[in-house]
Structure formats: structure tokens, C-alpha cells
Amino acid sequence: MSIYNDYISETEERKNIGLHPKPIDSAELTGEVIAQIKDPNHTDRAESLRLFIYNTLPGTTPAAGVKAKFLKQIILGEATVPEITTTYAFELLSHMKGGPSIEVLLDLALGNEEIIAKQAATVLKTQVFLYDADTARLKEAYDNGNATAKDILESYAKAEFFTELPAVAEEIKVVTYIAAEGDISTDLLSPGNQAHSRSDRELHGKCMITPEAQQEIRTLQAQYPDASVMLIAEKGTMGVGSSRMSGVNNVALWTGRQASPYIPFVNIAPIVGGTNGISPIFLTTVDVTGGIGIDLKNWKKQVDTNGDIVRNENGDPVLEEVYSVATGTVLTINTKTQKLYNGEQELIDISRSLTPQKMEFIKAGGSYAIVFGKKIQTFAARTLGITAPVVFAPSKEISNDGYGLTAVEKIFNNNAVGSTPGKILHAGSDVRVKVNIVGSQDTTGLMTSQELEAMAATVIAPTVDGAYQSGCHTASVWDKKAQANIPKLMKFMNDFGVITARDPKGSYHSMTDVIHKVLNDITVDEWAIIIGGDSHTRMSKGVAFGADSGTVALALATGEASMPIPESVKVTFKGTMKEHMDFRDVVHATQSQMLKQFDGENVFQGRIIEVHIGTLLADQAFTFTDWTAEMKAKASICISQDDTLIQSLEIAKSRIQIMIDKGMDNKNQVLQGLIDKANKRIGEIKSGVKPALQPDDNAKYYAEVVIDLDIIEEPMIADPDVNNADVSKRYTHDTIRDLTFYGGEKKVDLGFVGSCMVHKDDLKIVSQMLRNVEKQKGLVQFNAPLVVAAPTYNIIDELKEEGDWEYLQKYSGFEFSDALPKSTARTEYENIMYLERPGCNLCMGNQEKAAKGDTVMATSTRLFQGRVVEDRDGKKGESLLASTPVVVLSAILGRIPNIEEYKAAVEGINLTKFTPMSVK
Question: Which of 108, 419, 448, 654 sees the fewest Cβ atoms within 10 Å?
Fold first, then answer.
């Protein structure tokens, strides 16, 4: 059969499940489609023409290259297609977003056919996705006196590609749809168990919320054809968790508008709202698509006549409704007054949603166009030898006299690009910054590769110190979906210049190490800025931002990111940890004590947590930084002592060397370069030339939180509180309870030690606890399954050398095999210990899952509904989060232990200790 016939067969299968033909990215298929278009008598000519025009992916896809060349042939008269005139061919090229289309347009604009050159120039003036090779051609032509090149450059210098766009409407009508009450996890919008389909946008769109919700949205659109549907998190925050880009893509697919009639299933301009605003990473992704995110503040804490907060019987603040956003409410966003209205009634100021920069994103259809537009304007003005006119909103630059700098302010100032020379910038300033380290993960990586193709990028920016493509989210099961997607992804990223977990040629053993752990190791400078495609991109060195797949693509392509400098909250510690406590308990207590200190207000949300971590090495400190994603912080920074930082860098060097020894370095010797940078940084610290990063004594913080270690008496558990009468209180990570709350009675169906929140010492604790229980009872018997997944292979290798892995094997009923990886996900568990392959495992929820309705005790970060465990009839699934010793003992007992049982089980075990550093 021909490739086309195979494609038509697949199309028929898709039609049976309500899907359109899959967008074409193959050069071979596009070539066959074109051959059928050229044959006037071909039976499939009409369908081939439709597919060529409306269903071929743009950018740098192989299909785009073939399409652009054929359009060039039509324009030059070398091919004739009656349905595609020269003018129409130019229109199609104008929607192809860079890459081969730019090459063709430059060929035509700089050619000898005057009329064609003018038409090509007119189209080029609207394009912004140009790279060095493209701008070099323009510059060379201009230097050689080419008038068309000069005309194009003059247009670029004026930024006519932006100024000629239609203005943003003064009034935007919306109709509300409450997607859920309480925090809305992106798992509701893009479930982790459907991660395999994220690059197939139409198919993935079928999983958003529920089919019933999708129909309700369609009904609202039919009732209010002149309004956009605004998706709302009532009494909660919109978009917490991971899967931002696929979540926003789905929201846009159902509620936004098509970006181009010639690009299938790429929608833009979604509008979302939340009572407590939008999660920072999710909001950045909304900006990527030219959408609007609104902090509705439609519920507030009730106060009595004395001004005190009114509380219910549980001690929680009582909320009262300020205004209604019930489903079907018609509201108006006024972009001029920057207010939200219900009819004539003004509801709230929304100026933070409509800043000058955000208005530019809305006008341009997304933030990428602005980023590239600014670069092309700067290039054109420099080439012409003129000063670029002020077209774009000037970056806000805030400099507060009399105040020093927080740690994040220092990093942003150090990495700033294009800001006023010599000006010190404080929180709130808009900054372009150099990105040092970039991470892409495997369930969003295919989307990142699509974004790179769409923005016509072919090679990693040379200014990026290092970038890594992981394989951890699909590590558990090497099923047909993973086999189809992962090799394709690894080849693309390897060719692009990224260090990959799996070599496309099979010359080194695949690594499924958790992405955050690898990024934590390859970050070798605490002054670094890291961008990663996962919400838990939270390094204990440098400042790391979890990002959507598109922002990751932008960082890979340009080596830059743009964002305001966030405010910081300073976290310090006092007192002494109890011997029986683990550092994970300190992490949970931090959230609990913070909420109590600030009357339930989460001062971490949207800000940097500057944690003065003191004696903890990078691996252990990562336990804190990782959890800050669940605290809804934008990022976190660890303030380390000199000797601690040096030790962490030495560990990082050794692990990078292992990657080199496995053959993972590339022709640019990126990994060796990181070791060299680590050595340089260690030398700076030891010599005193540049000590470990510290904030200034007079830095200004949004808030300061002091955590009292003395009052942490018992292990702490983050409880999803699935049966809370107030649904907005469920699955929030804010319900932190001590062990005694459960009375030693709550049944546990499965324990999970694994994912990114554990390190080597946690696996040693498992081994030591097994020894302790064996000593007490003569034999370890599990009354619930215990799944153990080390985050990296390095840890397993070290445990083997130190004798711990052998003891884990003694009590395991299953041990992973890289030679024979699982091809299907486990659906049933026995009461044994499972030693699983390094990777995300249950935490991701896209492959392995607990049985429906189970109560899971886990060391991971996920207690979102349906992620680790789904509901069943009559019982909600719940994932409680705790320290490693609590999880292990819960699996052994089949229930949550009481405090006496816990203390006996951890006696003599060296739990992760922590001594606060002295703070000035």
C-alpha cells in the first residue's frame, strides 16, 4: 500500500472515534499528496488538495519543507494548480511560521522577478520567526545594495509586523463556566494518564474535564455566539500542578479561536479565571497563547464587627461571595478601563491581567511573536545603523533606593539581557534573562519538539550551558505508546543538541533518571537560571522555573526567558529537630506553620521561597525545593554555606562524569563543559573571590517566615481530605496533619517510596527499617504492597556497593529488569515489595496506578484527584503524603502507625537530619 492509503486507513479509524484526519508532518506523505494534486484525473485529487492546504503542519516539519518548495514552484510558474493562484500561494506561505517558508520567501524577495519580489517582501514584512541564517541573507543583500532587502529591513525596524496588526477589542464579552470548585489541577484539563496523546491535539482534547462538561461548553457557545467561554476555578486557583501547555491547549481548543485557518487544532486566546487567581506557571502558558488570566477575588474572608476573621467549627475562615460567576453569567472585560463588568456594574479591577506587555501578547496572538519580534526589530535597526523607534511597551524597571537585593534579585540582575546598563532592578521589574540550563521531559517533550518546529528552530542556542531530555515519565512501562513516541522524541532532541536519556542509535544504555534529579546535578552554579518542562523543576542550586513545553522550546531556541522578577518570602528555622523526625516532616511543617502565621493566607503563592537551608546537601535540600511547587510558589532558592555548596558541586561533578562515561556527551562536549564550570565555581568559593550566594542584609521581602523545629513532635502527613464537606478544601496540599490524628487505625492499601522527593538516604532508610522490623518480629511481613522506585540509577549503584540493595532484594517480590522492561502496566498488587525501575512511576499516573479507591501512603508530591489513584463507586481514592519511614511502616502494618509504633521502628536509624544555619 502507498503511504497515502495507509494514512486514509488511519483516517477512517479516527473517524470512528469522532476525529478528523491527523495533521500531516511527513515529507513522504506530503510528496504523495502533491503528486496526486498534479494529476487532474486522480480520484483522490480533491481530498489531497484539501489536506495540502488545510492539514499540513507548518514551521520546520519535514512536511513544511516539501509544501514550501511546491508553493514556490507555483509562484514561479513551474507548476500549475488552478485552485492555488500566485496570490493564494503567498497567503499559504504567510501562515507557515518560519523555517522553509522563510527560505522560499527570501529566495523570491531577493530574486530577479520584480513583481514576485515585491509580493514576497510584502509577506516577509509580516513574519518574525527568522533565525541567524535568514537575517544573514538579508544583511548580505542589503550590504550589496539590494533595494528589496532595504525595504524589508526598514519595515522590521518600524516593527510593522506588530503595528499593522488589528488592535485588541475594547470590550471582550465572556460567558462563565465553572469547571470545578476549589483548586483546579491541570490533571482535570490534561490528565496524566492521557499523556501519550498530548502531541495529537484533537485526540487529547477529548480528555478535558468530562464529555458532559465539553457538551455544556458547546451549549454555552451556541447560546452566546458573540462571547468567549471563560473557564473558572470557583473558590480556588486555576491550573495548579503540571501539564500546563497541554492543559492550556485543551482549554483553547474548546474555548479559544483557531490561530490560522491553515493550521489544524492550534487554537489561541483562552480566557480563564480563578477566585484565588491563576497558578504562575499556568498563567505564563496562557500568555504563550495570547489568552487572558484573571484573579477574580469573588469570595473574601468574612469579618465581624471588630474586624476579626469569622471562622467555622474547624477553624477555617468563613468566606462570603462578593459577586457571582455562576455558570452562564455574561461578563465584559474592558481592556481600556481594565475592569470586569456585569452589565453596567463594575466588579473588579483587572489591570494585572492587562498590563502593557500582556496586551501585546493578546494583540500578537501569543508571547513568542513578541519575543522574536523584538529581536528582529533590534537586528534591523542595527543593520540600518539607526535607533529603533519605541514600539513595544517599555520593560518596567523598578529600583528601590535604600534596599539591597534578595537572592533571586541578584540572580536576575546578573543574568539580565537588554535592561538599562548599570541599573539595579528589584522585584516587579520586567526582565529578559539568559537561561543556563534547560530540561525537557518525555510526556511533554513531543509538544516541545512541535513548538520548536513551529518557531522554525533547528539547533540549540549556543548560550545555553546544558540541556537534558529525560525519559522518566514513561519509565515504568515500555508499552506500544512509549515505543512509538520516545525514540522519535530522543532523535529529535539529540539532533537539536540536547543531552538525551536514550541514544537514538542505541550506543548507550537508556537512562530513566528523574528529570529534576538530573537537572539538579547538571546545575553547577547557584547563580544559574533553569527552565524545565515540569512543575517540579525546583533546583537546590540556582533558581529554577517549571514551565510549559513552549517556554522550554523558547529557552532552547533563544537561550532566554522573559518574566517579572518575583517577590521573595524568606524562610528560616529555629530550634532543634527531634531524633525521630525526618526532614520531610520539616517540609510539611513549613507549609502548616506558614498558614497559621498568616491566618490562612498562602504568602508563598506566586513568589520565590528563599529558604536558608544551612547544612543540607543538594540532594536533601531538593526535598524542600521540590515541595515548593505544592506550596504554589513560583520557585525557590536555597541559601547554602560555602562548604556545603562545595560538597554539593563535587557530588554533581561525579554524577556528570558518570554520564560522560556512559557515552552521553555530545560533539560540543556539553557535559565536560559543565564539569569545567563546576571546578571554576569551586575555585571561586575556596579562594573567597566569590563566596556562596547570599542575600543582602537590607533586602526587602514580601514576608518572613520562621519555622519552629521545637514544636514538630510527630511525623506530618499531607492529606487530600477527600470527604471534606467543603469541596474547595479537597486535594489542596494545605491540610497537614500529625500522626496522632489518625489514631493508628486508618487502613492503607498501598505504600509508595519513590519519585523525585526521595534521595539515596531514603532508600537506605527503607533498608534500615526492614532490619529493625526483622529484629523486632523475626520476619518482615507486608500487609499492604510497597512500591519502591529509586529516582536514579546512580543511587542503585551506590546502594549495591554499600550493601543496602541486597537487603532490599531480600524482601522484594519483584525487581525491575532493563533487559526485559514491562510492556503492560500493573493492574493488581500483592502484599510484597516491588523494586521498580528508576523514574516517576505512580507519581505520574500515566502508566502505573494504584487500584481504584485505594488509600495510598506515598513519599511523592501528588495528591490530586485521579493522579496516583482514581475513585471507584462508593470510595474515593486518596493519596496521603509522608516521609519514607511513615510510608514503609504503613505498608508493613497495612494502616497508619501510631506514634509509639513509629518511634520503635525508626530507633537507631539515621534519618535525614537538619541543623538551621545562623541568619544575620
Answer: 654
- CA-nearest of 269, 272, 245, 243 to 179 is 272
Pairing of strands 466-469, 499-500: parallel
Sign of the torsion angle spanned by Cα atoms 427, 433, 437, 443:
positive
DSSP letters of 315-383? SPBPEEESS---TT-EEEEETTTTEEEETTEEEEE-GGGS-HHHHHHHHHTSHHHHHHHHHHHHHHHHH
Which residues are within 8 A (CB) of 203 and not within 5 positions of it... i.e. 6 or more apart? Answer: 14, 19, 197
- H-type helices in 165-269, by residue range? 186-189, 201-205, 211-223, 244-255
Hey, what's the cell of 823? Answer: 510492556
List the one residue out of 694, 753, 711, 745 whose CA is nearest residue 894: 745
* Alpha-carbon dihedral angle through residues 867, 871, 876, 878, given to the nearest 10 degrees: -20
CB hemisphere CA count around 257 (13 angstroms) = 11
Which grid coordinates belong to 391? 514600539
Among the listed residues 275, 273, 274, 270, the one whose alpha carbon sits nearest the alpha carbon of residue 288: 270
Contacts of 268 (CB under 8 A, 6+ apart): 252, 256, 257, 258, 259, 289, 290, 291, 365, 366
For 306-320, how does the pLDDT look when each residue is reduced to its tens digit (9 = 90+)?
888 888 877 778 889
List, in order, residues 6 or more apart from 731 with CB less than 8 Å away: 182, 183, 185, 720, 721, 722, 863, 864, 865
The predicted-structure confidence for 369-420, as pLDDT tens digits, reads as follows 998 999 999 999 999 999 999 999 988 899 999 999 999 999 999 999 888 8
- Nearest to residue 717, comparing CAs of 615, 626, 591? 591
d(CA 758, CA 620): 8
